[in-house]
Design brief:
With 301 residues, the protein is an alpha/beta fold. 43% of the residues lie in helices and 25% in strands. Helix 4 packs across helix 5 and helix 7 packs parallel to helix 9. The longest helix is centred in the first third of the chain and has 26 residues.
Length: 301
């Protein structure tokens, strides 16, 4: 056997080993609904974006039921800047004005969603675009940032109060992958911007998903940010509640989303590093996992 043949054989054995490791998880998660919040560097890096789409299609073809929920922070900021509108954030949430909401919607639906569906359909024609402000998919109330006893107005930002689960289930049962832009409609019939982390948690809770996975630009929740060696691999609800006030503005909405999802009955919530190739598959189908996992209680593990 030549060296080249030996190398190919070794590579084939490695692939077989990975597939064998995935088997118990494939069995465990058959027919499971998994909500994935697409964001961070995976959204702005074309190669990672394509790999993410491959991962989502793999989940679907492996027998899971993925739902993709996306925001568009960096792209929205860029478009607003080009329009001469300054981006402003309070406690990690974008301040959204009447002037900026149409730009926000255009970026989410016509840019990001369109590209994501194209990447999914390049592998298999499974992606179906949905927007939370259409057909009352996401009904919202105006959201205020709380600072002690003070409520801070951040404009046309909504807090999801009701998810029309049937619309999403109809897409899942048709054998397709819902790709949801995080907008909502209020009782005033206005379109509201919705934080993608909190929208993903609301959808996961309403549809009773088995798992929610949030992609971001860090390794996960760190005890001593930004020291990656202080990564917290697993945390329960009580511990998370205790450290929540000390979290930075970027991580707080993500961990609040995990807290809400698990409190509402979602079995597992994960925050993973979207900068890593195929991070989603590593999380779902390997023993090692990645990032931070939020569970109800350590006592139940």
């Amino acid at each position: 056997m030549t060296n080249a043949q030996q190398i190919r054989q070794q590579e084939a054995l490695k692939k077989a080993s990975v597939l064998a490791e995935a088997l118990p998880w494939l069995i465990k998660f058959q027919e499971s609904v998994v909500v994935i919040k697409f964001g961070g560097n995976a959204m702005t890096n074309p190669m990672l974006s394509k790999q993410f789409a491959e991962d989502v299609v793999f989940l679907k073809l492996a027998g899971l039921k993925p739902i993709v929920v996306h925001g568009g922070g960096p792209q929205i900021s860029k478009k607003l800047d080009e329009a001469g509108i300054k981006s402003e954030f309070k406690s990690g949430y974008r301040v959204t004005t009447e002037q900026s909401i149409q730009i926000v919607r255009d970026v989410l639906v016509n840019d990001i969603q369109k590209e994501l569906i194209a990447n999914i359909n390049e592998n298999a024609k499974l992606g179906v675009g949905m927007s939370g402000d259409e057909n009352s998919l996401l009904l919202v109330e105006k959201f205020y940032v709380e600072n002690g006893n003070e409520k801070i107005d951040i404009g046309l930002v909504g807090d999801v109060k009701k998810v029309d689960v049937k619309q999403i289930i109809d897409v899942l049962e048709s054998g397709q992958i819902p790709v949801i832009s995080t907008l909502g409609v209020g009782i005033d019939q206005k379109t509201y911007n919705v934080n993608a982390d909190t929208a993903a948690a609301a959808i996961a809770s309403a549809i009773k998903a088995q798992k929610i996975v949030i992609l971001t630009d860090v390794v996960g929740l760190m005890e001593k940010y930004p020291d990656e060696k202080s990564l917290i691999a697993t945390i329960d609800l009580n511990s998370l509640r205790k450290i929540m006030p000390s979290l930075d503005e970027g991580m707080k909405p993500k961990m609040q989303a995990c807290l809400h999802a698990v409190t509402s009955g979602v079995s597992r919530a994960h925050v993973i590093d979207g900068r890593e190739a195929h991070a989603l598959l590593v999380e779902v189908f390997t023993d090692s996992g990645t990032g931070t996992m939020v569970i109800e209680s350590m006592d139940k593990e």
